[in-house]
Write a structure and sequence with these properties.
The chain has 274 residues and is of the alpha/beta class. It has a single domain, classed as Rossmann fold. The protein is 34% helix and 14% strand. The chain is built from nine helices and seven strands. It has a seven-stranded parallel β-sheet, sandwiched between helices. Strand 5, helix 4 and strand 6 form a beta-alpha-beta unit. Helix 1 crosses helix 6. The longest helix has 22 residues. 45% of the residues are buried. The mean pLDDT is 96. The protein binds nicotinamide-adenine-dinucleotide (NAD). The site of nicotinamide-adenine-dinucleotide has 25 residues, from helix 1, helix 3 and strand 5.
C-alpha cells in the first residue's frame, strides 16, 4: 500500500465533485480522512474515514474538526460565480476559520484556488506562478483573497500552504479551452498526495493542470513537492479543437465563460496589460 500521512487529514467540500473523488482515492491508499461538508455525504463513508457535517462559516466547528490533523485539504465553499454576499461566508470567513485551525494545529493547508483568480489574463501570454492576480468575478476574487491569506499565514505564523490554481477538473475534456486547462482526477489525486507528504512546501503555488501541450501556464513549485502530472488533454484535441464560443471576450481571456458573466463594459480594453 502507498505511503499514508501519520496524522489524520481533514477534507472539506467532501460531498462535492472533487471531494468525493478525493475521499474515494485517498481512502483507497489507506489514508485516515475526516470528511466534512455542509451537504450530506452522498456515498458510503469509506473505511478509515468519518463524515461530520459542518458549515465553514462556523469557526468553532472547524477548529474542533481540525483537532489533531496534520493536513487540511480545503475543497469546500462556493465553487462557481455567485453574488458577493453568497461568497462572503463560505469563501472569505470560512477560509479564515481554516487558516486559524491550521495555525492552532501546526497543520499544512492545500487550498483549492482557481484559474479564475487570474482569469482576465490574455490567453496568448504564458503565465508564471508569480503573475498578478486578475480575478474575473467575485468567485475568482475570493480565490485571490484565499491565496493572499495563505501567504500571510506563512510569513506571519509559519503555516505552510500549497495553493493550487485548478484549471478544469472533470472526468473528461469538454471543449477547446479545456485542452489548455484540464486536470484529470488521477493528477488531482497525486497532487494532493504530494502536497501532503512533501517534507516541506513553504507557501507554494501550483498550476492545477495535467500535462497539456496547449497550456497557458509555466513555472511553479511542482518539482519541489515532487509532483508531475501523468495525464494530458492532448488526445482530445481532434475532437474539441473547434469547440469554441461565439464571444470574442470569452475566447480572449484565460477565464473563459466566467469573464463575460455580468460583463458591462461597452468596449473591451486594448491589448495585453502585462
Ligand atoms: N472542479 C473544478 O474544475 C475546479 C476548478 C477550480 C477550482 N475548483 C475548486 O475546487 C473546490 C472543489 O470544487 P468542486 O468542483 O468539487 O465544487 P463543488 O461545488 O462540487 O464542491 C464544493 C463543496 O463545498 C460545499 N460547501 C459550500 N458551502 C459550504 C459551507 N458554507 N460550508 C461547508 N461546505 C460548503 C458544497 O456543499 C460542496 O459539496 C472548490 O473550492 C472549487 O472552487 C474546482
Amino acid at each position: 500500500m502507498a505511503e499514508a500521512p501519520q496524522k489524520p487529514v481533514l477534507l472539506t467540500g467532501a460531498s462535492g465533485a472533487l471531494g468525493r473523488v478525493l475521499a474515494r482515492n485517498l481512502a483507497a491508499q489507506g489514508w485516515t480522512l475526516r470528511l466534512t461538508d455542509i451537504a450530506p455525504f452522498p456515498d458510503d463513508v469509506p473505511p478509515g474515514c468519518t463524515f461530520t457535517p459542518a458549515d465553514l462559516d462556523n469557526g468553532v466547528d472547524i477548529l474542533r474538526l481540525a483537532e489533531g490533523c496534520g493536513m487540511i485539504l480545503h475543497f469546500g465553499g462556493i465553487s462557481v460565480e455567485r453574488p458577493f454576499e453568497e461568497i462572503v461566508g463560505p469563501n472569505l470567513r470560512g477560509l479564515f476559520h481554516i487558516y486559524e485551525a491550521a495555525r492552532r494545529e501546526g497543520a499544512r493547508v492545500l487550498f483549492a484556488s482557481s484559474n479564475h483568480s487570474i482569469g482576465f489574463h490574455e490567453r496568448e501570454v504564458p503565465l508564471d506562478d508569480s503573475c498578478q492576480f486578475m480575478p474575473d468575478g467575485y468567485y475568482g476574487l475570493s480565490k485571490a483573497y484565499g491565496e493572499l491569506m495563505g501567504r500571510m499565514y506563512w510569513y506571519k505564523h509559519g503555516v505552510e500552504s500549497v495553493l493550487v490554481r485548478i484549471g478544469s477538473s472533470f472526468p473528461e475534456v469538454k471543449d477547446a479551452r479545456m485542452l489548455s486547462t484540464w486536470l484529470s482526477y488521477d493528477d488531482l489525486t497525486s497532487l494532493c498526495v504530494r502536497a501532503t507528504l512533501a517534507g516541506k512546501t513553504g507557501c507554494s503555488v501550483i498550476w492545477g493542470a495535467s500535462d497539456n501541450a496547449r497550456t497557458y501556464w509555466r513555472h511553479d513549485a511542482r518539482e519541489s513537492i515532487g509532483w508531475a502530472p501523468k495525464d494530458s488533454a492532448d488526445p482530445f484535441a481532434p475532437q474539441f479543437a473547434g469547440v469554441v464560443s461565439d464571444s470574442p471576450i470569452q475566447e480572449r481571456y484565460q477565464g473563459g465563460a466566467y469573464t463575460i458573466m455580468g460583463y458591462s463594459r461597452k468596449t473591451p480594453p486594448p491589448g495585453p496589460l502585462f
